[in-house]
Design brief:
Blueprint lengths: L2 H7 L5 H25 L1
C-alpha cells in the first residue's frame, strides 16, 4: 500500500493531491463496505 507515501508527498499546501488521496480513500472504503454487505 502506498497510502503513507501519498500522505507524505501531499502536504497541506497541495489541495489537489489531498483531494485525490481522499477520493481514493473513499473509493477503497466503499469497495470494502460493499464487500462486507455481500458477505453478511
Amino acid at each position: 500500500m502506498d497510502a503513507p507515501q501519498d500522505r507524505r508527498a501531499s502536504g497541506p499546501g497541495d489541495p489537489a493531491a489531498r483531494a485525490d488521496f481522499v477520493r481514493r480513500l473513499v473509493d477503497t472504503e466503499a469497495r470494502i463496505g460493499i464487500a462486507g454487505l455481500e458477505e453478511a
